[in-house]
């Protein structure tokens, strides 16, 4: 690519999309981009050159074996330096974020190319001046393509995305680097879904308003990119603040996906099991991806007891198939076995993986008395019974079977609910935590939680809404040893907010539009983004609303929290 070609290249920067296929599905959007990258370079062996961010973006939606079938045989990081001799017979697909650091690495690569041809795809908007710099570096004219493909976010599930940003705030304001990254991530989602939305934000949140303003600036500055054919009712981008609902990320979870994240942590679809006693080498890290694991896809929203029953059925099915393959007596038997072997091996691996994960979850529930802890958590979140709950918290703090972390978490929930109660004993509970020798950072977390998400920081009445819920519903978990009854009556504040938005009842005073105009009809396409992180419980809520209300909602957050990562968020915000 010579300097004379710059104007041509700039005009070629484009977005690939297919509105009919995507339909508010972020996984489909990212997969389409990556598929297009591998197709545009034509047949032949290819290498995929990525950065630390785009590596995660690709791995979330494609397994290695699947991308190998697209003739991509090598994977390299642009910041690592090539580990290979120059291979001019290979085509290089470059997929990177357009950061200064990455552009510097790419410029160096083009001045001394290792591969025969380069097809360059930036995950977000790139300045024309940067393209000119790259053109000047391409002395050997190896660049064949330069495009913008807006896959600049982690597509967790069709309706859920994350930006992988932790500790995004300084006090009640943005960390400047986090703000810039969030603006880029959210605008990439809008571009990949072909949406130019009306923007609404939580009025009590300085961070939500600031993000809304910055996104609006991009929509104005890059107006030509957002010239999509709009539906009759414009889409809505709703920006919320985690501070308005600090309860949801503090609770233990009892659906499969959320429970795994709470107790074991899911990091870019990977779960670290290396701490499990006697774990085999191949199971020290397992992948839980709805795109690559049919069992996980079908069961991620089931509760713990239902998962136990499903795992049992899966094992029985696997054992039956194993017995049917024991006798291989004829050529026909051999042929049938060979044809079925890849599927059989895959099923066997799936069974082993999920039995291991569920077994460890069951062990942790039993070891840390999480059933009793969770029951009290749910009551603190949903019922106003001060004296009774205070006594139970004291008893559990004194209990040797409860972790320090869980004891402190119960005090946090108590402090959030009863902060304004005339007879609250928050200080007394903190003293009892100190007597128990709970680590100072957890004591601090109790105090920080009041500043972060206490009554003065919240716009909504999260406890009033929960108290209105009908009597406690007990969901009985059967057929899984050690599991009895668990309360699951808590409903995230997000459910009420989105229902009001869909029904046209969301107060404009609390959630104003940014700029002129408003929508008077029921919105069909909603992107909701939570500053400070979303949760898998809220993802389940969105999944259910999409099914029940006939709308298309996509949920995103700076990160996907479990209770531990949430406390780190709170710590950074109140430092």
Report what the structure shows:
This protein has 575 residues and is an alpha/beta fold. It folds into four domains: 3-150, Rossmann fold, CATH 3.40.50.2060; 156-245 and 492-564, Rossmann fold, CATH 3.40.50; 256-367, Sec1/Munc18 (SM) protein, domain 3a (Syntaxin Binding Protein 1, Chain A, domain 2, Alpha-Beta Complex); 370-487, Serine Threonine Protein Phosphatase 5, Tetratricopeptide repeat. It has 22 helices and 20 strands. A six-stranded mixed β-sheet has the order 6-7-19-17-11-10, with helices on both faces. A five-stranded parallel β-sheet has the order 2-1-3-4-5. A three-stranded antiparallel β-sheet has the order 12-13-14. The radius of gyration is 26 Å and the shape is globular.
The CATH superfamily title of the largest domain: Sec1/Munc18 (SM) protein, domain 2
Q: Using the CA coordinates, give the radius of gyration.
A: 26 Å
Helix content: 40-55%
Could you tell me the number of beta strands? 20
Question: Averaged pLDDT, please?
Answer: 87
**Order of adjacent strands in the largest pleated sheet:** 6-7-19-17-11-10
The CATH topology assignment of the largest domain is: Rossmann fold
CATH class category name of the largest domain:
Alpha Beta
Structural class: alpha/beta
The CATH architecture term of the largest domain is 3-Layer(aba) Sandwich
Described by strand count, sense and barrel closure, the largest sheet is: 6 strands, mixed
Shape: globular
Straight-line N-to-C gap: 49 Å
């Amino acid at each position: 690519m010579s300097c004379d070609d710059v104007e041509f290249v700039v005009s070629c920067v484009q977005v690939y999309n297919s509105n009919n296929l995507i339909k508010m599905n972020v996984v489909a959007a990212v997969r389409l981009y990556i598929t297009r990258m591998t197709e545009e370079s034509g047949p032949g062996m290819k290498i995929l050159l990525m950065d630390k961010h785009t590596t995660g973006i690709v791995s979330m939606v494609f397994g290695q074996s699947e991308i190998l079938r697209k003739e991509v045989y090598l994977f390299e990081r642009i910041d690592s330096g090539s580990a290979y001799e120059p291979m001019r017979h290979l085509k290089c697909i470059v997929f990177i974020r357009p950061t200064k650091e990455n552009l510097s690495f790419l410029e160096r690569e083009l001045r001394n190319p290792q591969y025969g041809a380069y097809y360059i795809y930036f995950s977000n908007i790139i300045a024309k001046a940067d393209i000119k710099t790259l053109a000047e570096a391409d002395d050997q004219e190896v660049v064949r393509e330069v495009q913008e493909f807006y896959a600049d976010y982690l597509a967790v599930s069709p309706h859920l995305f994350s930006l992988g940003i932790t500790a995004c705030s300084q006090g009640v304001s943005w960390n400047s680097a986090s703000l810039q990254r969030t603006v880029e991530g959210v605008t990439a989602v809008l571009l990949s879904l072909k949406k130019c939305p009306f923007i609404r934000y939580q009025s009590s949140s300085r961070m939500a308003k600031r993000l809304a303003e910055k996104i609006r600036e991009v929509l104005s500055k890059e107006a030509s990119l957002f010239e999509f054919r709009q539906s009759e009712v414009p889409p809505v981008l709703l920006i919320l603040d985690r501070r308005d609902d600090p309860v949801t990320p503090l609770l233990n979870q009892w659906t499969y996906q959320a429970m795994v994240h709470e107790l074991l942590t899911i990091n870019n679809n990977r779960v670290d099991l290396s701490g499990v006693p006697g774990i085999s080498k191949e199971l020290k890290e397992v992948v839980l991806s709805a795109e690559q694991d049919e069992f996980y896809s079908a069961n991620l929203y089931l509760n713990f007891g239902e998962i136990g029953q499903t795992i049992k059925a899966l094992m029985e099915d696997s054992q039956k198939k194993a017995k049917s393959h024991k006798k291989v007596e004829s050529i026909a038997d051999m042929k049938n076995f060979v044809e079925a072997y890849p599927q059989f091996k895959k099923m066997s691996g799936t069974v082993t993986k999920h039995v291991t994960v569920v077994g460890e979850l069951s062990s942790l529930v039993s070891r840390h008395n999480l059933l009793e802890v969770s029951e009290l958590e749910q009551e603190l979140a949903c019922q106003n019974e001060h004296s009774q709950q205070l006594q139970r918290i004291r008893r559990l703090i004194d209990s040797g079977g409860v972790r320090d972390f869980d004891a402190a978490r119960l005090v946090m929930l108590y402090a959030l609910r009863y902060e304004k109660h005339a007879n609250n004993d928050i200080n007394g509970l903190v003293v009892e935590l100190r007597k128990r020798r709970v680590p100072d950072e957890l004591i601090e977390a109790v105090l920080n939680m009041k500043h972060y998400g206490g009554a003065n920081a919240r716009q909504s009445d999260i406890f009033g809404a929960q108290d209105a819920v009908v009597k406690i519903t007990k969901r009985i978990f059967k057929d899984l040893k050690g599991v009895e009854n668990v309360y699951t009556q808590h409903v995230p504040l997000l459910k009420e907010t989105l229902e009001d938005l869909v029904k046209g009842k969301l107060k404009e005073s609390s959630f104003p539009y940014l700029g002129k105009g408003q929508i008077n009809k029921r919105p069909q396409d909603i992107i909701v983004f939570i500053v400070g992180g979303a949760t898998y419980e809220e993802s389940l809520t969105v999944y259910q609303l999409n099914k029940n209300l006939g709308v298309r909602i996509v949920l995103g957050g700076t990160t996907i929290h479990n209770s531990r990562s949430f406390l780190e968020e709170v710590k950074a915000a109140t430092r």
